[in-house]
Write a structure and sequence with these properties.
heterodimer, A: mainly beta, Methanol Dehydrogenase, Chain A, five-stranded mixed sheet, five-stranded antiparallel sheet, 4 helices, B: mainly alpha, Cytochrome Bc1 Complex, Chain D, domain 2, two-stranded parallel ribbon, 2 strands, 3% strand
């Protein structure tokens, strides 16, 4: 009984109440965040990750010391090693999601003292959630009197908390809880033991790990699902986006990311595939222009990342940037970045709002970083591309039953800021011998530029298409940054995240999708939790190859592609040109210590990491490393690095005990600037670390 | 003055590290000393496929929900630590959906499979099943020079 029911708030909200006097009251009726605060996941609703603070600068960055730190092990029944949050800071209080419970914690922003903690025990519903752990953050709202914190639990409930106490706000939803699996213009369902698709609020697949977004009096939430490479079925729940009243939780609007019959775009789903296809959510951050009253929705891929034979057509609004009205959710314009998605490019990060000047004319623009390394820039009122994005022919594949778009829109400007295809020229080239070995590895795969389609995996080759800029390349969920004063965008990109995409026929008991991701000669492995398998009459899996015959995507332990492995690029959005591009991150141990490269002078290579977020201050670009290294300069750990915003030159670095896994943020309290970053991974469980400068006289 | 203290701290820390290293027995074993068997790695592969591959991938290359268990990034994470540390990380926190449910033998077998895929050599004896004993085996990414 206890484990099956969602137990009432009063029992399970555990709060350390802080005296109200500790938190200053907000005097003004109209609340506006200060520049010294960080009130929203990406600093502001424009997705800039920018604060014009400059106490920490090039002259002192390397002097930073730890002001406070908090391990998140005890915020859940097990430690977490994938802490991805970016905290908020308003009025001297720092709010963050933390731990495997996805608890919300409030800390004194100066001392790190724990003020309150809130957690929800969701039982089986939380345990079955597609997106678990601590999530990426939360949202703050105030009308000048009341302060509220919003977050979504792993079990897909929107929780409204009193920011002063951590207690749920009873007047919101049902005692502070809004069940997001309800009132969604669909019945959230799951497959039962008899393989029937039945309503199921407990295990029905839908959730989210990104932060809700508050604009005006509307709180908005998208949806996420399991990884889509090997889905169990072509049928799934759909990822609609909704806006709710921040005071009551009443649904204000919904946007159908897969159009319903009669709605625009329905005809891009041939053979009635809009009826059963799911996913197509907005799992990443939503961006809002409050002044224009417009919301920008970056929509992900439809069901089945790499095979779309069951959803013929262009599949609007899959992989489409959609602009809707903040008050009604009505679509204003849209632009589909990828027709008929086959590469899991999604749209993976917050669109960035930029007021720029193009050919002497001011333009309110929106710039969309992507996994495929294109920065798509539009007039954000009309949706018209700032620079042409002509439809260009792309390779049409031959996977049986697949439907291919013969063209894709390719931005003419700015140039791609990370690799988005694989050619022989991209392969390792430290020595001619290594290049030859790289060619041998690559020879097992189909190669090609961006939008080269997946292939059926064959033992004799190709094992699949070797791609970059697909599932984990380019810019992923941390997104980019933007300086509104200089009109320069700063984009971290994984420039070496190789994704082999091979397809195998799916055994009937694994999936009703004809082809799913896999490798010829290896047992089909469904990418989700364990426990589902083999019926008696199902086809036997093909004979396995022994482990020694793995085709490893490296060359004697070295990365298959040449450096730089990870980059930060500064792009002038007035012109669409690069200002600079640097390799971000220390050269990996495996390269620096390689006997094969002994005596060679290899410039810093950067690292193969897909989830690095950047922070922009008045003069600096700040980003941590995503990999551990052990160098003569520092013990096993990672560095938080600062670059001169104007030139990309590194101006300082400070040691972190583990890689950056959540994007850094900054704020100022009582005259001191702080930088907070989430670190975790490998042997190191999640921790938020706050850095500041030594006090005067130290 | 401002810079003196941190540097002094680093010097002290470095000195302590050197002292620690000096105390390590000269014959301390590492992952390069054949600490598992091929047979054990094969058993580990079967456990891996059933319990781990859904998140870490068929080829141990990871995915969005879990990191790679092979390659430079993985090895750098554990470089300088011990197999006991890695064993305990697996034993206490994995599989993520039901941590702590595999036996010590299964965990040791999975670890053997991971060592095999990471190209550390097999030997004639199986991996220990006790964390304390595994803590005597260092995870070193760089192959040490051959002993005299």
């Amino acid at each position: 009984m206890f484990s099956r029911r969602f137990v009432s708030a009063s029992l399970l909200c555990f709060c350390l109440l802080v005296p109200i006097s500790v938190i200053p009251q907000i005097a003004s009726a109209q609340w506006h965040a200060k520049e010294t605060e960080w009130p929203s996941y990406a600093a502001d609703l424009a997705g800039t990750r920018y604060r014009p603070l400059d106490q920490i600068n090039a002259s002192n960055f390397s002097d930073l010391e730890i002001a406070w730190r908090i391990k998140t092990d005890n915020f859940g029944d097990r430690p977490e090693y994938k802490l991805e949050g970016t905290p908020l800071m308003v009025n001297g209080v720092l709010y963050a999601t933390a731990g495997s419970r996805r608890a919300v914690i409030a800390l004194d922003a100066e001392s790190g003292e724990l003020l309150w903690i809130h957690g929800e025990h969701e039982g089986k519903r939380g345990g079955a959630a597609p997106r678990q752990l601590s999530g990426r953050g939360l949202a703050y709202w105030s009308d000048g009197k009341e302060e509220r914190i919003f977050y979504v639990t792993p079990g897909f409930r929107l929780i409204c908390l009193n920011a002063k106490t951590g207690q749920r706000v009873p007047s919101f939803g049902e005692n502070g809880i809004l069940d997001l699996k309800l009132d969604d213009d669909q019945t959230i369902s799951a497959w039962n033991d008899k393989h029937e698709w039945v309503p199921d609020l407990e295990t029905g697949e839908i959730g989210i790990q990104s932060a809700p977004v508050v604009a005006g009096d509307t709180v908005m939430v998208g949806a996420a699902f399991r990884e889509g490479m090997t889905p169990k079925s072509m049928r799934n729940n759909k990822g609609y986006v909704r806006g709710f009243d921040v005071r009551t939780g009443k649904r204000l609007w919904i946007f159908h990311t897969i159009p319903k019959k009669g709605e625009a775009g329905y005809d891009t789903w041939e053979k009635g595939s809009a009826e059963y296809t799911g996913n197509t959510g907005v799992w990443t951050q939503i961006t809002v222009d409050e002044q224009l009253g417009l919301v920008y929705l970056p929509v992900e891929s439809p069901t089945s990342d790499f095979y779309g034979g069951h959803r013929p057509g262009n599949n609007l609004f899959g992989e489409t940037l959609v602009c809707v009205d903040l008050k009604t959710g009505q679509r204003k314009w849209h632009f589909q970045l990828v027709h008929h998605a086959l590469w899991d490019m999604d749209i993976s990060s917050a669109p960035i709002l930029a007021n720029i000047t193009v050919d002497g004319k001011p333009v309110k623009a929106v710039a969309q970083p992507t996994k495929q390394g294109f920065l798509y820039v539009f007039d954000r009122i009309t949706g018209k591309p700032i620079w042409p994005m002509p439809e260009k022919p792309v390779e049409v594949g031959n996977v049986p039953g697949e439907w291919y778009s013969p063209t894709q829109p390719i931005p003419s400007k700015p140039p791609a800021y990370s690799r988005n295809g694989v050619s022989i020229d991209d392969l390792i080239e430290f020595t001619p011998a290594l290049r030859e070995k790289g060619k041998e590895v690559a020879s097992h795969y189909h190669l090609g530029p961006v939008y080269t389609p997946p292939t059926v995996s064959k033992l004799e080759g190709p094992l699949g298409t070797l791609t970059m800029g697909t599932a984990s390349g380019g810019t992923n969920w941390p997104g980019g940054s933007y300086d509104p004063e200089t009109h320069i965008a700063y984009l971290y990109a994984c420039n070496s995240c190789i994704e082999p995409i091979g397809l195998v026929e799916s055994p009937k008991e694994v999936s009703d999708i004809r082809y799913i991701a896999g490798v010829a000669g290896r047992e089909v492995q469904i990418m989700r939790g364990p426990g589902e398998n083999a019926g008696a009459d199902s086809p036997k899996p093909p004979k396995k190859r022994p482990a020694s015959q793995y085709v490893r995507l490296d060359v004697d332990g070295l990365p298959l592609v040449k450096p730089p492995y990870g980059t930060i690029t500064a792009i002038n959005l007035d012109k669409g040109d690069f200002v600079w591009q640097i390799a971000h991150g220390e050269t990996p141990d495996v390269v620096r210590n390689s006997e094969l490269l002994k005596g060679m002078n290899i410039p810093r290579t950067g690292q193969e990491t897909y989830n690095i977020g950047t922070l922009i201050t008045k003069t600096l670009v700040i980003a941590g490393e995503g990999q551990v290294t052990t160098t003569p300069d520092h013990p096993r750990g990672a560095m938080l690095r600062a670059y001169d915003k104007a030139t990309g030159k590194e101006v300082g670095a400070v040691y972190m005990p583990a890689p950056q896994t959540g994007s850094p943020m900054t704020y100022m309290v009582h005259g001191k600037q702080y930088i907070v970053v989430a670190v975790s991974g490998g042997p190191y469980s999640g921790e938020y670390i706050a850095y500041t400068l030594p006090s005067a006289g130290e | 003055m401002k810079r003196t203290l941190p540097i002094a701290g680093l010097v002290l820390a470095a000195a302590s590290l050197c002292a620690l290293r000096a105390q390590a027995p000269a014959d301390a074993r590492s992952v390069w000393d054949g600490v598992y068997t091929d047979e054990q790695a094969k058993r580990g592969e079967a456990v891996y496929r059933k319990e781990c591959a859904a998140c870490h991938g068929d080829m141990l290359t990871g995915g969005e929900s879990a990191p790679a268990l092979t390659g430079g990034g993985f090895q750098a994470n554990w470089n300088g630590l011990t197999l006991g540390d890695l064993f305990d990380r697996i034993r206490k926190t994995m599989p993520q959906t039901k941590p702590g449910t595999l036996t010590r033998q299964q965990n040791a077998d999975v670890l053997a499979f991971m060592l095999n895929i990471n190209k550390f050599p097999a030997g004639k004896t199986e991996l220990y099943r006790q964390s304390e004993m595994l803590k005597e085996i260092r995870f070193e990414t760089k192959k040490p020079p051959a002993k005299d």
